[in-house]
Design a protein that fits this description.
- By secondary structure, the chain is α/β, with parallel strands linked by helices.
- The protein has 15 helices and 17 strands.
- Helix 1 links the parallel strand 1 and strand 2.
- Helix 4 runs antiparallel to helix 5.
- The model has no long low-confidence stretch (mean pLDDT 93).
- The chain binds adenosine-5'-diphosphate, aspartic acid (ASP) and magnesium ion.
């Protein structure tokens, strides 16, 4: 059916110029005979600002909260006015946006009176970002000659009630997608939906977690059996490292689902970690593309990537982690001890990233969070506990690392000037990770990149872009 899901992130819809570029990209797909379903994020920085509004209101700062909301209220109709030239359309849209901000302000005033920000209210507040952007972008698309139709994602993406990180219910989503999206597609219309937002079965707004618009795109792609899922962002694709940290990072041309999932989970922000799941289930290729450089081929994520000469494909970093060290002689020669430890993490619903054990001690790493003192108190029933924040996990991803002799020696030689706190290799054939101080993380990535991406395999990495970077001008 030529169905393609196109997801555009915050920077791809940040202002009228970005939205016009996005419209041109979608129009290009329509002219090429494709049937796009478009998923958009809130305009860049809007989600952060809505969270700041919510936090200010919950601390009783009603004026501060309403001031942030008022700045957002101006930004949206200004964008709409620049994009929608038809006076009647433009006035109707401005009026609709104003009503949404009236509703938001009402919630903020209520919150400033109650002074309690529940996860459910937080989801309601942040949802305004995608609700407004998607409606506005659908109108802008129509002005650019695309036959676009706004669809409220909350009618399609149905989840459980775990607010702020809700779990999608695939069977309902598939049914809703057929009801709410298919008729538009068959009639030649382009549905435009907000990412990230969803609702539970009772119709109450939920969200899929920060960065969750990628996940929405993948869920829609899976439910509609799309031929591809395109993630449009502000970089040329998945790179060998975060280009903000490592400016000479190279584009990875093709990567496997497994490698991309590992990178996303271990901190490569370019992709939400759950994005790969629906794509794998239905074997739908995912493409990461740059809306500022649409002619670039981006990165193709497929089930089996071609063999690569270089040991690693990319380096990811996850910051804001804590290490918990447990020491107990009780552990010596006993069984069931680790089970008791993990029961405590389970009770606090806190996932553990890395574990390392010795005869009488265990070290674990978790996201730094406000549950840590309570977790430590519970763990102290079992062992002496110490925990320390400001740690980072560096994760090197590449195919079959386990099968290559001397790889660990090369990795640790490249960062010999940096103190390594924990190491993990072997759990996965494609990932080698270690824990360091957060302040050392950027330097570690640059050193590793310099050591492992000197002579990259041109079949897998875009080496042409590097040549252009280093070729002196006339
Ligand atoms: P969007 O708003 O489009 O969803 P994000 O900000 O969530 O975009 O993700 C894109 C950003 O991810 C890039 O600007 C880049 O700084 C960061 N990033 C981190 N690791 C990588 C990587 N390995 N490859 C590409 N980008 C990366
Ligand atoms: N707007 C949401 C966020 O900033 C979701 C997304 O953009 O993916 O987290
Ligand atoms: Mg993102």
């Amino acid at each position: 059916m030529n169905l393609v899901v196109m997801k555009f992130g915050g920077t791809s819809v940040e202002d009228p110029a970005a939205i016009a570029r996005t419209a041109a990209i979608v129009a290009g797909r329509v002219s090429a005979g494709k049937k796009p379903i478009v998923v958009v994020s809130a305009m860049a920085r809007v989600t952060d600002q809505l969270l700041r509004c919510a936090s200010a209101a919950s601390l009783g700062d009603r004026t501060g909260a309403l001031a942030i909301s008022s700045r957002l209220r101006c930004r949206h109709p200004d964008t709409a006015a620049a994009l929608v030239k038809d006076a009647k359309e433009s006035a109707a849209l401005a009026n609709w946006i104003d009503k949404k901000f009236d509703q938001l302000d009402e919630v903020l005033r209520g919150l400033a009176a109650i002074l309690e920000l529940t996860p459910r209210i937080s989801d309601l507040i942040v949802s305004f970002g995608e609700r407004i952007s998607s409606r506005m972008i659908a109108a802008a698309f129509c002005q650019h000659g695309i036959c676009a139709e706004h669809v409220d994602s909350r009618d399609v993406i149905v989840t459980d009630s775990s607010y702020q990180k809700a779990i999608p219910i695939d069977a309902i989503i598939e049914k809703r997608a057929a009801e709410k999206l298919l008729p538009h597609i068959t009639a030649g219309r382009v549905p435009v939906m907000g990412g990230f937002i969803a609702s539970n079965e009772a119709g109450i707004t939920t969200t899929l977690g920060r960065g969750g618009s990628d996940f929405t795109g993948a869920l829609i792609g899976g439910a509609m059996h799309a031929e591809s899922i395109e993630i449009w962002t502000d970089v040329d694709g998945i790179m060998t490292a975060d280009p903000r940290v490592c400016p000479d990072a190279l584009r990875v041309k093709t990567i496997s689902f497994e490698e991309a999932a590992e990178l996303a989970y271990f901190g490569a922000k370019v992709l939400h970690p759950a994005t790969i799941l629906p794509a794998v289930k239905k074997n739908i290729p995912v493409q990461v593309l740059n809306s500022r450089n649409p002619s670039n081929d981006g990165t193709r994520i497929i089930s089996l990537a071609p063999h690569c000469q270089s040991p690693f494909k990319s380096i990811a970093v996850k910051k804001k982690l804590s290490i918990i060290d447990l020491v107990a002689s009780r552990m010596l020669m006993t069984h069931g001890y680790l089970k008791e430890i993990f029961t405590i993490f389970d009770k606090h619903q806190t996932p553990v990233d890395m574990v390392s054990t010795s005869e009488v001690s265990v070290s674990l790493t978790v996201d730094s969070n406000d549950k840590l003192p309570q977790i430590a108190a519970d763990l102290s029933q079992l062992a002496d506990v110490k925990y320390e924040g400001k740690k980072a996990l560096v994760c090197m991803v590449g195919e079959d690392i386990r099968g290559q002799n001397g790889m660990a020696a090369q990795v640790f030689a490249a960062i010999r000037h940096i103190n390594v706190r924990m190491i993990s290799q072997g759990a996965s054939e494609i990932n080698m990770s270690f824990m360091i101080e957060e302040d050392d993380a950027d330097e570690a990535v640059r050193s590793l990149h310099a050591a492992f991406f000197q002579n990259p395999d041109p079949t897998v990495f875009d080496v042409e872009a590097r040549k252009q970077l280093v070729t002196p001008g006339p």
